[in-house]
Amino acid sequence: MSDCHAGLAPLTRCADCGAVVPVTVRKTAKGKAKKPKTPVQTVSTRVWEPVSFFVDGVPVTQGSMRSVGRGRVVHEKGPELRAWRKAIQVAAKNAGAKPLQEHEPVQVSITFFLPRPKSVTRSYPSAKMDVDKLTRAVFDALSSHVISDDGQVVSVHATKLYADGCKPGAHISIALYTPPPEAVNLAVAV
After folding, report:
1. CA 160, chain centre distance (Å)
2. Does residue 174 fall inside a structural domain?
3. Element (H, E) at 133
4. CB-based contact 60:84 (threshold 8 Å)
5. What does the pLDDT average to over 111-137?
6. What is the DSSP letter of 172?
7. Total domains present in the chain
8. Is residue 35 in a domain?
9. How confident is the model at residue 89 (pLDDT cuts 50, 70, 90)?
10. Bigger pLDDT: 61 vs 4
11. Contact assessment for residue 87 and residue 56, using Cβ atoms and an 8 Å cutoff
12. By Cβ atoms counted within 10 A, which residue in 36, 38, 139, 170 is the most buried?
């Protein structure tokens, strides 16, 4: 590599169209440029395998933010959320997950097993812990570990149940997207 290229941002190849593009430079809240993330080595759909695994632990939601002053906002459950995301990443790695190339559509199925509060007698966890906020935490944890970006998820099925008789956690399955027959028929009809 020539010295004249020392200050240039690394380039990445788009897996979809093959174009070589510079890594996007992100900016901090104060307008300073952040160091670009090191590109993750991804694999093509020819060698990528679907993965299914269980993450042990109490699922944590992502989405609620709070101000800590001076224009900074943080996730309300910061330390717990980081630990939950890390547990997801470790479980995915232990299951043999490899990051899939960008732009490849995937489908994700998640079943959350939540601890039942002692005073609750209803059959399903139809109160606290929104399923979309639980799912958001999983998608962010999977980004760059199983998929390149959570925008690749085109189909999701998420369920939350009480962990009666089993450990709290989440069962996660990721596979390449295959449209159901009715979706193909609708696309043709339009």
Report:
1. 17
2. yes
3. helix 131-142
4. yes
5. 90
6. E
7. 1
8. no
9. very high
10. 61
11. yes
12. 170
Q: Could you tell me if residue 25 is inside a domain?
A: no
Contact 170, 113 (CB under 8 A): yes
CA distance 81 to 59: 9
- Is residue 115 one of the residues assigned to a domain? yes
Q: Are 167 and 113 in contact (CB under 8 A)?
A: yes
Question: What is the residue-wise DSSP string for 67-127?
Answer: EEETTEEEETTHHHHHHHHHHHHHHHHHTT--PBPTT--EEEEEEEEEPPPTT--SSS--S
Lowest mean pLDDT among 42-46, 97-101, 112-116, 149-153: 42-46
Q: Is 93 in contact with 141 (CB distance < 8 Å)? A: no
Nearest to 120 by CA among 171, 82, 161: 161
Which residues lie closer than 8 Å to 53 by C-beta, 6 or more apart? 91, 92, 94, 95, 97, 171, 172
185 CB neighbour count, 10 Å cutoff? 10
Retrieve residue 121's tokens.
Answer: 């007698």
143: domain CATH number is 3.30.1330.70
Q: Are 84 and 144 in contact (CB under 8 A)?
A: no
Query: Which tokens hold the place of 115?
Result: 């601890």
Structure tokens at 176: 């390449």
Encoded tokens for 76: 């309300």
Q: Are 23 and 10 in contact (CB under 8 A)?
A: yes
